[in-house]
Amino acid sequence: MVRTVIRRRKRSLREQDVTVTDPPKVRRAVTAAALGNTMEWFDFGVYAYLAGTLGKVFFPSSSPGAQVVSTFATFAAAFLVRPLGGLVFGPLGDRVGRQKVLALTMIMMAASTFAVGFLPTYAAIGFAAPLLLLVCRLVQGFSTGGEYAGATTYIAEYAPDKRRGFLGSWLDFGTFVGYSLGSGLVTVLTAVLGTDGMTDWGWRIPFFVAGPMGLIGLYMRLKLEETPAFQREEEAQARARTGNDPVEEARQSGKGRLKEIFTRHWQAVLICMGLVLLYNVTNYMITSYLPTYMSQTLGEPETTSQLLVLGTMLLVVLTITTVGRTSDRWGRRPVFMAGSVALIVLAAPAFLLIRQGGILLPALGCAVLGLLLVCFAGTAASTLPALFPTRLRYGALSIAFNISVSLFGGTTPLFASALVEATGDEMVPAYYLMVAGVIGLVATFFLHETAGRPLRGSGPMVETPEQARQLVARSRTTAGRQARDVWLRVRHLWRPPDR
């Protein structure tokens, strides 16, 4: 009888506990989620490469340095509302579903980016022009507050456990493809139209492109289904609500979920914020600040600096899925750990190379930064969602991610440009990256390995029915051995001593 009780306590997996993924649905989920990130980062690439031009259009009365700072201040303002977007869209995604919220954020992102192309200039309406630019950036920032966390959650909940790193890396593949498309378009337009042509009217063209891209992304997202993990969690919550338990109802409310995030999962929130800081400070330093740093601070030609950063992004695009696949094999912690240590050691040498001038040495410095960035970019989308359980995943990740991005990531171009302007030290960006590496190293130290394991609050996910049967068989064998070992210990305790 005792052995039966023990076996029940060590219950093995059943076939209905294992989800067999549908490859076409997984591909659609990854493509639609990645396209939203492509749209978001197309705008970031355009904005970063047009920082000097937008400064002349919307802040013409300032000095060139102040124009850049003012443009990046408008860029950073969008990040101030991202936590608000996370507070709204994250818990909403946990209640009504990931797919619905992702469709809504897509509409808002596309519309706000498209609208920038229609804005009148400072010469036309004066101070109202930068205010309208700020409004568009705030709407985009608010919608982005629910975008990345929702997209990572969606892919993670669709991906088989053993391929989550590889499939998740396609989300950030879309990120850097979008940035490359945006920055590449600006580079081509600058070469064709020249600086005066871009200042007069050419700066509007990249923002107009965002409209059709947004419609395509919206169409794809409206065709998606809910994730298997969310569907199971929704069924479990429906069964819990049938009991009319006031305690359970309070727990499922938005306020109850927020309280649970910060009381029961605060350690995961801090780890998430540390990893997001590491990734996004590196990301925005390269993608948003480096083009302006090389052209405005170092005096390199704009086309040269733009091509160097564009080449760095293409390097990231070519290597990111390899890093994601590697994290499935070696684990997430080793990749993050190696990247953090390398960032601390190599940030200063990389910027020393960039400061040498010419093409070859700055290209080598940019390549070093790109390879550092890809360590975090290829692993983040599979690591961050695994920190939280299904019922809180979208909300907790949205809040932690956006607070960290707003405080540290999105403000990186602003702080870096202001510190260089104030101190005159051109190595400030390297020091900034080194501090981020130290914080990321501490966060990685407390990170639990999740590669190849089910998400918290979800059952295993595999690719084929045969894999499901093998997993159930191994689980039964393991459960039987555990029960046998415990039973032998119990028998040993009960057996009378030898006389």
Describe it for me?
The protein is 81% helix and 1% strand. The chain has 499 residues and is mostly helical. Strands 1-2 form a two-stranded parallel ribbon. Helix 2 packs across helix 15 and helix 6 packs antiparallel against helix 11 (204-222). The relative contact order is 0.16.
Mean pLDDT over the residues: 83
Give the strand line-up of the largest sheet. Answer: 1-2
How much beta, percentage-wise? under 5%
Radius of gyration: 25 Å
Q: Count of DSSP helices? A: 22
Stretches where pLDDT is under 50 for at least 5 consecutive residues are 1-9
Distance separating the two termini: 28 Å
Please provide the ordered H/E string of secondary-structure elements.
HEHHHHHHHHHHHHHHHHHHHHEH
By DSSP, the count of extended strands is 2
Largest sheet: 2 strands, parallel
Binned, the helix content reads over 70%
**Shape, please?**
globular
What structural class is derived from the secondary structure elements?
mainly alpha
